[in-house]
Specification:
heterodimer; A: alpha/beta; Aspartate Aminotransferase, domain 1; 3 domains; 15 helices; 12 strands; 35% helix; globular; B: OB fold (Dihydrolipoamide Acetyltransferase, E2P); 6-stranded antiparallel beta sheet; 3-stranded antiparallel beta sheet; 4 helices
Chain lengths: 494, 126
Amino acid sequence: MPTMPDNELNIFEKSRHGRRGLSLPKNGIDAKPLETLIEKRFLRNKPPELPEVPESEVVRHFVGLSMKNHHIDKGFYPLGSCTMKYNPKINERTCRLPGFSCAHPFQNDSTVQGALELMFSTAEYLSEIAGMHAVTLQPVAGAHGELCGMLITRKYHEKQGKQRKYVILPDSAHGTNPASVVCAGFQVKQVKSSADGTLSPDDLRAVIDEDTAAVMLTNPNTLGLFETEIEEIAKIVHDVGALLYMDGANLNAQLGIVRPGDLGFDIVHFNLHKTFSTPHGGGGPGSGPVGVVEKLESFLPVPVVTKRTDGNRHSFHLSYDRPDSIGKLHAFYGNFGVVVRACTYILMNGGEGLREVSEAAVINANYLKEKLRGKFDLPYPQHCMHEFVLSGNRQKKRGIRTTDMAKRMLDFGVHAPTCYFPLIVPEALMIEPTETETRETLDRFVEIMIQIDREVDEMPQTLKDAPHNTPVRRLDERKAATDLDVAWRTDDKL
Amino acid sequence: MDTPDGLKYSKDHEWVRVEGDIGTIGITDFAQGELGDVVYVELPEAGKTISKGESFGTIEAVKAVSELYSPVSGEVVEINDKLEGDPALVNQSPYDDGWMVKLKLADPGELSDLMEAAAYKEMVGE
């Protein structure tokens, strides 16, 4: 059956030679052949094949694609441990200010004072929020921040005179943690979570020794639980001369309430694309600044933005003169446009507002947890922070797996939560509503979950075949993981 | 869930089939069901010596990556090359075409530490 417009075609297939979205005025300057302006070796062999489509079709094309997608502007997105929160639109205005969006990374410091001041200030705000001494904005993802933290850890022990071997992680850790540890040249030692889901000081004591470089924790952890013994854990870590690293993926629960630095953490990474409302996932790019305590400041990546004060005048500079630095981690200064958005978010909320963000996130999560625990197993039933983890065990016994329920949620216009993580919860469903969702949205989600639970008995095949209402049906996940090919055409040479 | 008699089972969800002094090792039907679609299996080289309880490889499924722990000690005499091109065999045929390694058993006495089918079924609650 033909549909209108035909959204199966990509923008190149919609192209027709000679169509234009824009007419350029005559400019009165004679055109010169390109070869006389740019050396031939830098020129393409043939002109780029750009789609030729009128404006109206371009708009329809991309609106059509965005309707097929699920995104935070369209529907509820309770993706635990990833804080898929609403991205306020003012962030998009500020980052498009020409002074930011048109700046070139090779510009002289004196011509980009505003941009440098914004970087300097954002680093200061993040330091204050986390109770850290200094912050680098260079890493461009959470895992990149972890790698930065582990390289700093390496450099620190090297400077102390003895390199160390191990980094200790709990069994509830994000999968990126062990990967970052190994990339930085350490080995992973795993410690089991205790029966209540947190890390017990005794279990840590049993594995920690003088060969331990660092202990890496997510707090609140991936079960959404605050590490209640964190101060004792910090003491154990510091007593053997190791560093305590906080994976900041779950910082959304703590803003203005508790500061990682005050709890004894030495290094913290921030996910600006989680806690600070910048775009996330396929829409990124991300940003994973890293904060450190004073004794680690000299190891931060270069360049560092410094402030010079001369009487009443302040100026900002990029400093590369840091002999102990771990070096550069990314081209130029990280993802600057993302930092502008995060800075906007911090300033728009203010200190009190950020605290309210975390309070509302925690209240919303606890509200959902209490509403759902009657129908779903809740292996760690204590008060949660910004997220909680249900188990689909009760439904599995009735023949339906968590993956089936997650696919079914898509039919109701809800993005599926994180499934099968953390690994210590069988058939896990990790739910994080975030702070901006209304009571009505949360109640609707509860209704959907209860309906799905009813369908487990009444219409199991519907669940096994879900989703039914999405642009594509259930995917072959093995093929998607091993044989992914998203290129439309790969035979083109430049 | 399929748990054939005649095999030995470990608490880490591996099975061993003993023929002479050779033990063939794979993961159980229960384990493949829990892992979901297997996308990659990393196996050791033939000739490698492995101790009981040691990791002899990794298995990557859509949901998670797990270590493969050897239920017995011995020298690797053969690995299942087919898994490289077709890891789905672990899901489709965990006890036959989805086998992983063959070991020349170093200590057949270790087999007595493993479970029979009935005990394994009880452990996984079936």
